Give the backbone structure.
Amino acid sequence: MTETAIEFVNVLKRYGSAVAVDKMSFSIAKGELVTFLGPSGCGKTTSLRLIAGLELPTEGQVKIAGRDVSRDPASERNVGMVFQSYALFPHMSVLDNVSYGPTIRGVPKAEARDRARAILDQVGLAGYEARLPSELSGGQQQRVAVARAIVQQPDVLLFDEPLSNVDAKLRRKVRAEIRELQQRFGLTAVYVTHDQEEALAVSDRIVVMKMGQIAQIGTPAELYEQPASSFVADFIGDANLIEGKVSSGTFHAAHLALPVRAADGIVTATIRPERIRLAKGGIATIRSASYLGSRMEYVVQDENLEFLVSRPISEPRLTAGDSVDLQIDPADLVLVR
Amino acid sequence: MPRSGRCRSNRQRIPVGRFSLTSDRAGLAWLGLLAAALGLVPWYKGNNLFAGPAASALTEALAGRGWLWPMIAVTSALSIAALTRGWQRSNLALGLTLGAFALLIWQGFAVGLRGPSADWVGSAFPRAADGQTGLGWGGFLAGIALTGLLSDLFAARGFCRGERFPAFCITAIVALLTLFVFFPILRLGIAAFVDPTGALALGTFWARISAPDLWGVACFAGAGRCGVVVNTVVLGVLSASFATALGLALALLVNRTDFRMKRALRAISILPIITPPFVVGVAIILLFGRTGLVTSFVADLMDVRPTRWIYGLPGILIAQVLAFAPVTFLVLLSTLEAINPTLEEASRTLGARSMTTFRKITWPLLRPGLAAAFLLAFIESLADFGNPIVLGGGYEVLSVKIFFAVVGARYDLGNAATLAMILLALTLIAFWLQMRWMGKKSYVTVTGKSDAGLTAPLPPILKIAVFAVVLPWVLFTLAVYIIIAAGGFVTDIGRWDLTPTLSHLVTAFRFEIAENGLQLYGSAWDSMITTLWVAGLAAPLTTLVGILTAWLVARQDFAGRRAFEFGTMLSFAVPGTVVGVSYVAAFNVPPVDITGTAAILIICFVFRNMPVGMRAGLAALAQIDKSMEEASQTMGAGGATTLRRVVLPLIRPAVFTALVYSFVTAMTAVSAVIFLVSARHNMATAYIMGRVEAGEYALAIAYSAVLMIVMIGCVALIQLAVGTRRLGRRQELQGRPAADPAE
Ligand SMILES: Nc1ncnc2c1ncn2[C@@H]1O[C@H](COP(=O)(O)OP(=O)(O)OP(=O)(O)O)[C@@H](O)[C@H]1O
Ligand SMILES: [Mg+2]
């Protein structure tokens, strides 16, 4: 089942002379939840709005369900969107908010209301139909926004940082709810966030963006374990970036000499902090040690290289000043250029 | 949670775009309208819309009016181009549409009322010698159709993110502003440079603009009169200075003293807005004229001969200061309210005496506000027509002189145009200065925590000064409004004959209910009914255009948005008198020949008052999260639906403000309208002006009082209709579900 729900073909969006989205191409399969992840200003929101039709591409094509919708305004696409601020209509009751879309699209009023009630029931808001949005808690408002977006069975459901207005404690729960709803209805969803942990937790695939371009697309595990660039490695989780060079099948940097399979040349090797092991006695020194509850974090100096190392709390503690030996399994090394 | 079978079963494709025409159909509809305008509807004015194709552009062209052919030919080519797929995105369609538009305009100007405007047109089309009248239904419909078509082609190219409704609104408003704001001004500018026969005459222009009765400064030397431009500027400066001083006194009184009747003061400051023009002037004459109440009293008391001193600069000045003080008051009050009290507190804790604090802290912070208030009053004074014409005597100002150059015995449009250009230039300079002042970083410190301290009370000397200024103003205002309230209902208030009578009212508004229904005999009914109709139609239209423009400026991202906004504000800057003459210059002749109709009155109001609705709309929209409209769009609502169902309900107070303002202004405006009224469509203010000129003061006052009562009644009605439901407030909840599922 790899029917394509959304496709970008060389999409470029320019504001004046600034390029917000730079020749992006990708496709999203039906039923998939894809996250746009990247630092602030990299064009995530713009990409999302390009799918919704709230912006039209300067160049390139946006396709939804196989149809080229590049020039269609938002009102003529079948998308649902959950806004950062929820954007509930304050002058309408919860029921009117949710039945707004079907009514606009010509569903008879009574049926539109029935549909709205059914969806509200699904998101656990039965009994709140008559309230105004201002009479709901933040979390409830968010669920009304989701209900409103899915009541029309959209081709794609869009979320722009839906959790940024949610209490930090509640986030984990709400994002699980969103994921559960998406899977229950079999919806295609695109989700924007700049929180990598959130992205890893909810996505089928992640699009990592950098300055309007795609840095890498892949499943959370792929991105974490096989980052395509030091940018991705650094952005997703913590990573040690080691600059060195490869000559005749060996990676050299400071004292390190690790066998790798790569062509000769200057490279950056990345390794996750938890993949480095420490043994007492060696030529490297512990510069600092931090107790983080679930693990220990060390900064280790080896010649001119500095490593971040994360070890389980169960291992013997080391303290600053201790001499250690860095043990790296060559298989854990990912070379990027 | 169980899977919902219901939702599954609903999973069919929802018809998308059911309420919007598909791209092709919208374009074809406009094209059809264009074809109908050219082929089925009478082209020239003076024909009924349904007169049939006998007088259509096509028929006229066949009958020898060959200058209509190019437009018809291009339209035909466009229709053929529209048969191809995706024609709306083709450059050919855009080129042909623009061409048809240009040719529509060209055919209007190529042949005038009395013949061709250029020799080659005359030789190419012999029938051009007959001339042509103004455009009728066909012409206007063609213009509308081409505007619609153009907007559709723009939208197809991604203008306004492909949304057809905003694209149409922008195109239409630009077209309307061009036709009803910029074109008249352009025509007026041209009129200033041509002689009465229509030939370019720079010499005449130079003679007009350098005339000594414009720039003379003899009065400063104590001998003779000054030029009209000098008079206007002197009046403006004096009037703005006094009005600013009075406004400052009022603002200090309200903001910096424990004076109790602040609400009353605010109420009084609204009065000038609903006071018809002339009536304050009349009241001043009745008080201070040669036989005025105060004059006679003083003459008897001191045994001096009464004079006509009030006619001229003093009279106009008094009336203007009275009228503009509320404006300066409001500007300065908001400035004072924005000054962070902690600054003054800091100064006092440092040991400064209250006078020093005022001089060193408060006054410098006030200065930008003072400049803004001064310029505002100056601009109003330049534009004022009602007071100078009643009280001016021999003191001529530009607005009055322009009026007499057009409606006086010596009709001289060229001269009126020249004077109007000078007035416009003065106004624009003042506006430009004001923008510069406002644009500069203001010192005013807005913190959002206005209760963070106590404002410094006024130093005692200033407090006395403030009362010394405000008290006479209150007495004077009271006297004026007592005269207005009573004058219409007593025999002759000017001679202190206070016998109550309804005779003035009867003269104006006599009616009988006879067998054949209601019969209106009073002399004022015509103008009253016209005024109510015109204001009643103009108010909603003004509001519509104003709010729509605000929405476009605030919410649509389109090329040329800044210029668009600037253009709408410019139409506000043009003084009424200038608008009046420019309409005479532009719309008295073909192709758009609409003087003498009620439509021109309505159009004039709509484009003069629209910027106020726009300001109100912009302020309201700034408070509303844009994503609500985007949400509505993603749910399938087009621009028009979103506007109606989401935006308008949320900005109701702005709609109310715009409606009330445009209604009241339409009822009381005079400076532009006075040029546009006709025997058939007379307006209340023009009628009142006639009575004042004839010396029938009591009648004028009676009518004005009735007008004010009608206005207040209408405003109450508008309030009732629009309502002002408050939103977003947590209310006492009933039937709250027992368990909150969120927790
Ligand atoms: N309407 C606009 N006009 C001009 N530039 C814009 C506009 N909208 C976005 N941009 C620019 O485009 C770039 C991408 O913006 P976008 O909002 O997509 O970023 P983002 O990835 O969502 O960032 P954030 O995480 O901060 O929300 C930014 O540089 C931004 O300044
Ligand atoms: Mg964003």
Q: What stands out?
A: The pocket of magnesium ion (ligand 2) is lined by residues A 44-45 (CB under 6 Å). Residues 535 and 666 of chain B are 5 Å apart (CA to CA). Chain B has a mean pLDDT of 83. Residues 19-114+130-162 of chain B form one domain.
